[in-house]
Every structure is written in C-alpha cells, then in structure tokens.
Design brief:
- Two copies of one chain form a homodimer.
- Chain A is mainly alpha-helical.
- Chain A has two domains: 63 residues, Winged helix-like DNA-binding domain superfamily/Winged helix DNA-binding domain (Arc Repressor Mutant, subunit A); 143 residues, Four Helix Bundle (Hemerythrin (Met), subunit A) (Up-down Bundle), CATH 1.20.120.530.
- The first copy, chain A, is built from nine helices and three strands, in the order H-E-H-H-E-E-H-H-H-H-H-H.
- The longest helix of chain A is centred in the middle third of the chain and has 25 residues.
- Chain A binds a DNA duplex through helix 3.
Amino acid sequence: MTAAEGLFVLEGRPTAQLIADQLREQIVQGAFRPGEQINESVLASQLSTSRGPVREALQRLCQEGILVSRRNRGVFVLELAIEDIREIYAAREAVESTAAAALLDAGSKSTRDTGLALKRIIRDMAKQVALSDWRAIARLDMDFHTTFVAGAGNSRLMRIYETLAAESRMCIFNLEVSYPRIDVLVEEHQNILDLLEAGNREDLFKAIKRHMQKAVEDLTAASEDNEIFA
Amino acid sequence: MTAAEGLFVLEGRPTAQLIADQLREQIVQGAFRPGEQINESVLASQLSTSRGPVREALQRLCQEGILVSRRNRGVFVLELAIEDIREIYAAREAVESTAAAALLDAGSKSTRDTGLALKRIIRDMAKQVALSDWRAIARLDMDFHTTFVAGAGNSRLMRIYETLAAESRMCIFNLEVSYPRIDVLVEEHQNILDLLEAGNREDLFKAIKRHMQKAVEDLTAASEDNEIFA
DNA sequence: CATCAGCAAATTGTTGACAATCTACAGTTC
DNA sequence: GAACTGTAGATTGTCAACAATTTGCTGATG
C-alpha cells in the first residue's frame, strides 16, 4: 500500500455530529427562539432523514448545554438569563487566560502563527466595522477569540471554548446587541494582540479580564430593555 | 393546586442521560479498557432496552469526549496519551483557579458551607488513607475538587469540570497509580482549604497550580512504565 | 359560572427489522 | 509462499411502525 498525497477519507465524520454542527450554527444564528421547542419530525424531514439520527444529534447538543431536554416533552432551546451571561463570560475568561499563559510559555512558531492569524482577523474586522456589517463583525469577534484559544494547542480547552463561544453568539444575537462600543472594538482586540506579542503577561491577563467584564456590562445593560429576560 | 414542599418529579431525567451517567461511571471505573469498542447490542441487552436509547447515550459521551466515534465502525473508549494528561490538568487548573477566585469574591455563607463540606471530605480521606482503600481515596480526592468547584456556583464551570474529573479518574485508574505521595495527600488538600478560609488569594492560586503540576508528574512518571502508553 | 373528568390530537420514547459497511478468513493466482 | 480477491460474519447506520405521555379542548356537573 503506497501513500497517496492529496487523498483523504470521504465523509469520515459521523452523521450525528454533522447534524449537530449544522443545528448548532442555526441556533446561534437565531433560527430558533430561546425556549422554543425543537420538533424532531419536521427537523428530520427538513434534513431528509429519519428521526433516529436527529435524536442522536439533539442529545449531543443537550450534553453541550445549548439545548435542554425535558422527559416526555422534548428538547428546547436554552433560555439565557442575566446570571447565564455572567457564568459564560467568567468561564471564557478562565479559558482565555489559560490559553494566553500557554501561548506565552510556548513562545515559538505556533505562537507567531497565531499572532499572524489574529492580525488578519483584526484587519477584516476593521473592514467590516467600516461597512457596519454587524453579522460579519460578530463572526469575526468570535473568530478572534477562537483562534486565540486554538493557539494554545489544548484540544480540551478548545472543545470547552467552542461551546462557550456558541453561547456567547446566542447572547449577542438574542439581545440584538449591535456592539454599542463599536469604536473601541478593533482597538481592544489589537491591544490584546499587542500584549501577546510583547509577552506582557500581567497586562495581557488584565486586558482579557477587562474585555470580558465590558462584554458582560454591555450585554446585561441590553438585557434590561429586552422582553426575553425576566 | 397547592405547592408541596419536599416533593419532586419522579424520574424526570431523560433516558439517554441516565444511561450516559451509568456508562460514564462504568468507564471511569475501568469496566472498559482504553480503545475498547462499545458494542451497542450487548450494552442494550445488559440494560434491557433497545439500541436506540443506547446510541443516544453514546452520542452524549462522544460529545463529552470520553468516547470517540468512527463512522461505520462504532464508538471506542478514549485512549489517553501523556499529552492528554497535560491537557486535562491544565484545563483543571484553569477551572479550579476561577472557582477559587469566585469563592473568595463571594466570601459569604456559600463559601463557608463549601469549607465545611471540604473539611468533612478531608477527614474521610484521612480515614481511608489509614485503611489504604485506594478506590475510596481516589473517589474522595475527586469529591474534594468537585465540591470546591461547585462552591463557585457557576453551572457551566461545574459541567466542564465534571468531564475533566471523569477523565482524571480514567487516568488514575488506567495507570493504576496508587498515589505515590500518599503521606502528603491529605496535607495538600488541607493546605488548599486553609488558604481558602484564610482568604490568601495568591498563595491559594499557587497551591492549586502546584497540586496540578505534581499530579501530572506522578501520572507521567507512572505512564512511562505502562504498556498502555506509547 | 367555575371545576373537573374524559377524550382527541400531537409529540416524544421505544422497538425490531432492514440496509450498508467493515473485518477477518479462506481460496485463488502468480 | 506472498499477495490479491471474494465471501461470510458481525456490527453499525437507518428507517418506519408502535406505544406512552402530555396537552388542549369539550362538555357534563355542582
């Protein structure tokens, strides 16, 4: 058996995961309202499959915490309260700080690659800010942080963070927050990147902490004049 | 309809979750070898149910990362390499440090309750150390850290930590590590509790960090003379 | 008129059967 | 004898039908 370059296994990923990934994207983009029930039958027919694989995918998202399952009643989209926002961003700070420490400790090629990727994202972000494309901005915002954590090279941190990122996007979309501090958005991310490349450990931690705190403030402020929250 | 205290919904949890919880416990206790395939049919008959619910539970554990799914081949118990040990304990340090910060910031009744619970666990741990009951010691070790994180009152941190705790137990069991530093085990946990109650922030962070580093050292040392690892 | 029992529709939970795929082994060919 | 091919068994993936439960409605009853 000779190894052939450029060939890869076809559709290697399990079906339930593919469905779960699609559905997660739909949910964070607001295709379902918070608290809304997910009907297995209609979802199955939309995906032109049967209820079996759909149920398996739904269980994955329940384990992830994006959906909640109630026995004999079905699965529902997670409803976010103010307390949830605080939880999510506290957890994000924990993960990002650890990723930052790992990036600084590594301090090699992978760190430089991460820096380049982050630089590119910031450039795109500035472009979209000029165009006021909120959807794109939100996506790039998350791309920045996801790339940051990915740079740490810890697959568990990454898996954890992907869920937190999805929940953050749910917050942002459901609250229809249009980045009130749009002017400092690019600046804040650039600041984090600068501190990373400068190897300024303590200030980087502080910058991450402030970034998260500000996000919580914006989201909680927005949640007060929003019918979704209690 | 009058509200009755002390009553709760009977068997409110969904089936897939119940099966997943049982199976997770079996796995971390070493009922399945790392890399071993989980046969859906035999598992279904053991639980006297059909393959449907079993598959749903398996998907949950795949999402959690304790099992890995390969298309058209089935699900297998996660194989832990040395790199995984480092990942798990780095993530645990992140979560526990954040929980510690939250506990210190709260500094109220919940913090005191957590302290009492931790004290009780340490007392039991000392008892089991005297009896050399390794299984019980490992369980109490995890109980301590789980209780610690639970005290922070962040459900997301808790959910994350439960998976990491499960993976830690897999490490400990599979490597048959019998706590080489048995004499300092109680002491180390007592030290963490003392620093928490004293409100000594920086030293508490350092103690947690050291606790995790030592665990990684013990586990990696044990993994070198073990056929499971490469 | 309020309340409650009972019924009907919809949805989830479960099951067994069938199809697709992989693995291992035997047989064949060079 | 080595390597390849083909087949048989086992296991997973998928599906449609059936059972159980919940929910909303209807109407009887005080």
